[in-house]
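Technical note accompanying the year-one report. For the benefit of new consortium partners, we illustrate the data format agreed upon in the data management plan: each record pairs a sequence with a structure-token string. No post-processing was applied to the example shown here.
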Amino acid sequence: MSGLLGGIKALKDTLHTWGKRMVPLFYGRNRSAEPYTATILDELERQGYGCAREANPSAVQRRVSRFSDPSDSGSQRNSPTPRSKVSDPESSIHSSPPEESYVPPEPMAPEKAAALITSSFREVDTTPVRHIGSGTMFDAFRTSDDWVFRFPRWDWCGDLFEAEARIHQFVAKVLPARIRLPRVQLLAEPTERFPYAFAGHRFVPGIGADAVDEALMPTVAREIAEFLGVLHSTPGAVAEAAGFREITIDEAGRREWYEHGLAVSAQLRGLDPVIDDAIDWLRAAPVPSPAFGPRQLIHSDLAPEHLLVDPATGTLLGVIDWTDGSIGDAARDFVSLVTWRGWRFAEEVLALYPRRVDGEFRSRLRYMAQWLSVLWLAFAPEQGRDLEKDIAGVHNAFAPNAFQPSV
């Protein structure tokens, strides 16, 4: 494997600026809402989703020290997926990523993060500030009083925070209150000391679902199924009225990302026969059609590390990284279940999933899992992703589904 990893490392020098999974982002109008007192759809209709309403003032707190309800929580991880550049947060926030090199700068030092946090939010305890991760988009730091701050590594990343806040505002009305979200509560504007906006969230407890003890996986499967059942109960028309949108291959930057990933994937040949066959399949596969299955609200990036669970019980505590929330095929939210643990686990979740799936659901899921797994592997070196996990993801996606129930 060491020789294999060495060969893959060399791919980093050949990667173009189009990086990672450019997947749907949220756009639209902020709307007022009140706590649920009825079913999800009844309450959303009562609140006016589906008809024109005046936007509420933003719930994001700008450069102030008054905190929101401490029970509101935020992500302790930085989003690992680069998005398109934002030009106007009240309209579509899709455009091409920057043309310069896509290798991010060195991570910010904790001392600098502490100084910037203190300069904007003096009531936050920055003694000490701990660096908890860096991705292509953000450096993330946790304070001793359980705030998590994300600092953009690119100028266009700082424009995503307000859109994320609108996503959280809507999704919080759909999900059970016990599932915590990375609610954007503190937002600092660019200054001479730091040229990008940065944001603070309350820490969401729990560990990634991929770190849970194996004995708890049946509970995790049930929790994922119940979460997806609630999320997917919001039809596409309701989500669209709330400002979500559906993204196709023809969105700005997405086709270029696909074509570059296709080219890079050719350099993966020789890893093993399954990867070689998967690359051949990708090159022959049609570009995903916009006419997939029924449309509803989806998460779109439900990697196991975005599902935070109680390590003692397997109960779902929070779901993070909602920037890709969109209107789409429910099968998309099962893709990472396939690449993470294989078809057996995906079928276990589907068996517990409270919504009925159509006859073509599994075919669409297989297509998306295979298509995305190869592209994720192609971009893994630049992203700093775990190469062995992405290789396993391809193997899982292309394995036969021997666990599908007979009709």
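Partners are asked to follow this layout when depositing records. The chain has twelve helices and eleven strands.
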